[in-house]
Amino acid sequence: MNAPLPRGVCPPLDAPGGPRVAPRPSAPRLLVSVRDTAEALQAAAGGAAIIDAKEPATGALGAVPEAVLRQLVTALRAAGHGQPVSATIGDGPWDDVAALEARVRATAACGVQWVKVGAGPGDARSLVALGRLQARLRAEQDAAESAGQPRPLLAWRGLVPVLLADAGLDSCRLNAALRSGFPALMLDTADKRGGSLLARRPAAELQAFVQAVQATGAWAGLAGSLRLDELPALRRFGADLLGFRGAVCDSDRAGRLAPERLTALRAALGPA
Ligand SMILES: O=C[C@H](O)COP(=O)(O)O
Fold first, then answer.
1. Whether CATH 3.40.190.10 fits 29-269
2. Top mutation candidate among 187, 201, 225 for ligand 1, by most atoms within 8 Å of CB
3. Continuous H helices in the chain
4. Mind listing the pLDDT tens digit for each residue in 235-262?
């Protein structure tokens, strides 16, 4: 188990304190979670900037079966959709680094650009291990490329920690995640019955997260039962990514993707 880092060295993230950064593009990129090929094609055609493979029936970070993931990536490319694909590896905790690595490798080998890994409270040490894993996998990719060999993890570009913030985000976890050169960090919720991230966390905490992540050059993403009517408030944080599932489904997030809802969201976000 990961022992929590000592208390006292991690002040609460309750106020914007990090360095100010240049404002990002006014329209955040839209990440849409999909469970199969049909939904992936709908999301791509509907203007999602990132296609996020996730099986909502098996948890907040439920993994899509590998065969489905491979098929989904192939179908997107065959249809001419170039959007990056992210995929989750399933709900943690991922205390066993060997098991984590095996899941990451298997997921990356399906042809995705990003592999998302959830980190709950007390997972600061796991985030350090995740950073080391990313460095090792990137070195493998680079070495193969320099030797003129096929990259072992195909199109994989990096790991994206998803910091589960139902009960808040402490700066220990955030600091651990900021040190490793992840391409993006996301805040999300594990319990989807508890309302949206925006309603559950103070605006100052979300703002502090976005600023701290962007100050490292990474993309900052927000997700967690976000709603269309929250877009005006969400835009004010200047996040690079906004992630949606429930709001673009016909019932709850375990239902089917509803293209008309995605169209409305895309239109409300403004030009991609
Ligand atoms: O990564 C984004 C999530 O899948 C968002 O799902 P949700 O909107 O149902 O919380």
1. no
2. 225
3. 37-45, 66-78, 97-108, 124-146, 171-178, 197-200, 203-215, 231-235, 259-269
4. 999 999 999 999 999 999 999 999 999 9
Is the CB of 116 inside a 6 Å radius of any atom of ligand 1? no
Burial class (CB in 10 A: 0-12, 13-18, 19+), 179: exposed
Atom nearest to 116 CA in ligand 1: 1
pLDDT at 122: 82
Whether ligand 1 lies within 6 angstroms of the CB of 196 is answered as no
| pLDDT < 70 positions in the chain | 1-26, 272
Active-site entry in 35, 54, 192, 266: 54
Residue-wise pLDDT for 55-68, tens only, equals: 999 999 999 999 99
253 lines ligand 1 (CB under 6 A): yes
Give the ipTM of the model, two decimals please. 0.99
Taking Cα atoms as reference points, which of 89, 243, 91, 75 lies closest to residue 156? Answer: 89
Yes or no: say if 114 and 184 are a contact pair by the CB < 8 Å rule: yes
Whether residue 192 lies in the annotated active site:
no
Q: What is the pLDDT of residues 219-239, one digit of tens each?
A: 999 999 999 999 999 999 999
Tokens 């360095």 identify what position? 19
Q: Domain coordinates of the chain in residue numbers?
A: 29-269
pLDDT attached to residue 14? 53
